[in-house]
Amino acid sequence: xxxxxxxxxxxxxxxxxxxxxxxxxxxxxxxxxxxxxxxxxxxxxxxxxxxxxxxxxxxxxxxxxxxxxxxxxxxxxxxxxxxxxxxxxxxxxxxxxxxxxxxxxxxxxxxxxxxxxxxxxxxxxxxxxxxxxxxxxxxxxxxxxxxxxxxxxxxxxxxxxxxxxxxxxxxxxxxxxxxxxxxxxxxxxxxxxxxxxxxxxxxxxxxxxxxxxxxxxxxxxxxxxxxxxxxxxxxxxxxxxxxxxxxxxxxxxxxxxxxxxxxxxxxxxxxxxxxxxxxxxxxxxxxxxxxxx
Amino acid sequence: xxxxxxxxxxxxxxxxxxxxxxxxxxxxxxxxxxxxxxxxxxxxxxxxxxxxxxxxxxxxxxxxxxxxxxxxxxxxxxxxxxxxxxxxxxxxxxxxxxxxxxxxxxxxxxxxxxxxxxxxxxxxxxxxxxxxxxxxxxxxxxxxxxxxxxxxxxxxxxxxxxxxxxxxxxxxxxxxxxxxxxxxxxxxxxxxxxxxxxxxxxxxxxxxxxxxxxxxxxxxxxxxxxxxxxxxxxxxxxxxxxxxxxxxxxxxxxxxxxxxxxxxxxxxxxxxxxxxxxxxxxxxxxxxxxx
Lengths: 293, 291
What we know:
The structure holds two protein chains of two kinds. Helix content of chain A is about 75%, strand content about 0%. By secondary structure, chain A is mostly helical.
């Protein structure tokens, strides 16, 4: 028995003057989270409500108003509005570049992690892709613009799709690398010993295992392509403009058409919002594999 | 397994070709451009060799200086606030079981929305005449603020938007980290009579260090690339008060058509970033930390 430790004991014991029951703690935690969630949601609520206001309601800062669809009708049906075309462009560019990213990244990840490349190949490719990922895209956009221009790819879907594919390849390579490493080496080796060719192994061994990974990577790639702004700002003009460019246009005009800007913004959040509601587990999986592993 | 050599190459080459054509080649082109002045004569680019003079101009460029400084302030302040707020919120709300899916949906939403729309939303809320923030200030009897138009306030306003945008994600990552910590250590600490503060200082923080580091690096990278939100909110103004580095490059290269000089600026930024990454990798490799 040492007396020194006895004298220390009362000091080290936490003195709780306000003892909360577990139930009270849970309620407080929920209150904190709820207020946080409200702060996060409020701006979204605000833009959606602005989309239903008339320009006058908006400029008067009215809180109570009669819902009105003018903003949406103008954005969708007005002859001068490019919104539907922008929406279509974003869909096409997003879908094709996502498909290309998935194919290229899956093949490369499988090759790097399961087909015995020497270490320096793996490290230099991944190293380069990390550096490229960290560099602001605007630095390369200028070179892309002049290169595309000299081969006639400026202001074309192909040019923008190529740029978006390159831009999102590092992230996809990283994520698919994580998922491909879930494929047991022994399984691949056993298939090789049985004389299976790589395409067969990819299709029958790798694909079934990485399918959730493909969904996660694909959804995020599509959303990032949908959201991408600086590169399309440089590479595209009216015919190939995507949704963010269209929204940017509203804000550039002398008198900002706030109702239309709000309506267009509301519509362009929808794809990501629907994916978040119906494919959340893939999104979460993608975000955690990309950021945490 | 000799037969596989063909497929070994065939699977890797698409990625290699894409990187070569769209990252290495443009980089070489930028490098070449940076030693020239480019003029357009009859839709033909005419390159004039100017040696290092484009690089020599960089240190004297006031816009670049403002852009670099603002980017640094923006990234450091915004990311520090996000991490701090996210961490405090995560500490306060661990082990909440009910409503997890709802909260997660809400907190992921901001990062899936185009940056340009984040800008549009806040431009509406920051408006001097009819923005909701000024309505609230006036309802409280306070003076309305020119959030985006005042040189003293604009950078802070932009930082506020970024903190709103990214704190939820930092919170989710840090919360996931906290909840994966082993329970028995905390129980042992409780038995030994550790105070909350001691527990935080000596157990939680050290164990959370990897998660904190990953979140921090991830956020810093994106913060240095910031462009979209600011493009819509302030366009870099008023004056140079929200000018960031990506903007400066965009302006010099595209708006002003100073192709050679813009290329030199791009190369300089890429070089600084690459040097930073290599230094950071060396530093962490020394400690035996492996990604």
